[in-house]
């Protein structure tokens, strides 16, 4: 770029020796222009400052996986982050019993890559949809999500609050649809209808290798029709597309939803390379190969391109709506049980009560 320093004139005294020049302060300029410009200064320098600050403090990301047992939830999370971050998939044994109710299990890990630290929390929901009567099986999940909002709200409204509030709110919920090849079940529709209002829901087709390519395409089209018919808004939501470039990218993503994924935590040798995949009689299904499954699209959505969007929508939309509702409930007047009208609120400073001492008369004898 062009130099912003003022031009130097020949009014300066003769050049000083090198030793004396080194002793002069570098920030002093003899011309009336002021301090010298040592390097380029631009607005984009803020990005470097934010990057350095983020690398020092790190960030938090909380993900929830919901689905029936045996759909590969733990394997998918381990494949997503290429490490054992989810609970160990246990084999059914004599000591293990299937939970009768939905139980939530959270595991927190600190992942560091290239100097960037991320506190990852994975919440699993064993027992979801495994019973004959699955009525209200989503209530523990909704309760857990609202409890995290409540915990963040209580920390936020404190007079002397922490400089950085611990964020345990669920940023994304990956819902596993069984690979039936038909329509969505009433359980799937009711769960996504309720949960999409309080959290970012990303539906996926679990174990997509059990379907042929034609069955997979037809199943995805039916799921998209069901979501549109029942007005279920999954992530990325169309209401929050403000930038034209983001809208174009999100439209391409919405055409692929739900993602047909295959999870694997074992490596195999394919053409001299070690790849993650599942070995079958007819070959090896490569997890990271877009021609075999859509797991790379899910990984790019959750980590590479939309991780910050998941956190922003959680804070600015879902948490904000919960915050407004809670504050309105706290300011709502109490109704009188007799007539149903708002009861008069007590005064802030009740009037003081003064006690008047009783008069005492003394009877004196007559003179």
TrEMBL record:
Chain ranges of the Septin-type G domain: 57-329
Subcellular location: Cytoplasm, Cytoskeleton
Keyword tags: Cell cycle, Cell division, Cytoplasm, Cytoskeleton, GTP-binding, Nucleotide-binding
Pfam family, any one: Septin
Listed GO biological process terms: cell division
SUPFAM superfamilies: P-loop containing nucleoside triphosphate hydrolases (SSF52540)
Gene Ontology molecular-function annotations: GTP binding
Main location: cytoplasm
Record's compositionally biased regions (Basic and acidic residues): 1-11
Location of region: Disordered: 1-31, 335-367
InterPro entries: G_SEPTIN_dom, P-loop_NTPase, Septin
Polar residues biased stretches: 358-367
GO cellular component: cytoskeleton
Family: Belongs to the TRAFAC class TrmE-Era-EngA-EngB-Septin-like GTPase superfamily. Septin GTPase family.
Descriptive protein name: SEP12 protein
Organism: Galbula dea
Gene: Sept12
